[in-house]
Amino acid sequence: MSKRWYIVHAYSNFEKKVAESIREYAQQRGLMDKFDEILVPTENVVEVRRGRRVNTERKFFPGYVLVKCDLSDDVYHLIKNTPKVTGFLGADNKPMPISDAEADRIKGQVADGVDHPKPSVHFEVGEQVRVSDGPFASFNGIIEEVDESRSRLKVAVSIFGRATPVDLEYGQVEKI
């Protein structure tokens, strides 16, 4: 049998622990040759907390771990009996493998997310914001343009009674 991708359902927020445990148990039982990859699909996101940009990790599929393995009875029972694992994705208690193309697409999303962290805050034109950093700190303004690819905004800030467009990064503003 060749190795295929299976989706293991785990308790939410325990995905990394489950992946670690599966590796550990496979090592102990001499079954590491049956496994190719154990993956928790995540991406890096940029969040703004208290006016500061913070890089955090977000899971693509909370509660799921991807495992590429040769699913023999031993491997099935090893994974199924791992703490915090509720089972496999599939019908009638039978694990259903996903296609290699689907697995490659997920791995591509992961690689993309690592290369280009995405902002977790989304802004819209016409939305009111407060500038939290830079020379216009504590000014309020209205968003005129959003450039998501560069994580920048054009905000109309009222200076001396006139609306002046100011180019700012996502991290320099906060929603009101």
Overview of the structural elements:
There is one protein chain. The strands form four sheets. A five-stranded antiparallel β-sheet has the order 13-12-11-10-14, with no helix packed on it. The protein contains three helices and 14 strands. It has helices at residues 15-28, 73-80, 100-115, and strands at residues 4-10, 35-39, 42-49, 52-59, 64-69, 85-88, 90-91, 94-95, 118-119, 128-131, 140-147, 152-159, 162-169, 173-175. With 176 residues, it is α+β, with helices and mostly antiparallel strands. Strand 12 (152-159) and strand 13 (162-169) form a beta hairpin.
Provide the descriptors you would attach to this structure in a database record.
four-stranded antiparallel sheet; alpha+beta; five-stranded antiparallel sheet; elongated; 3 helices
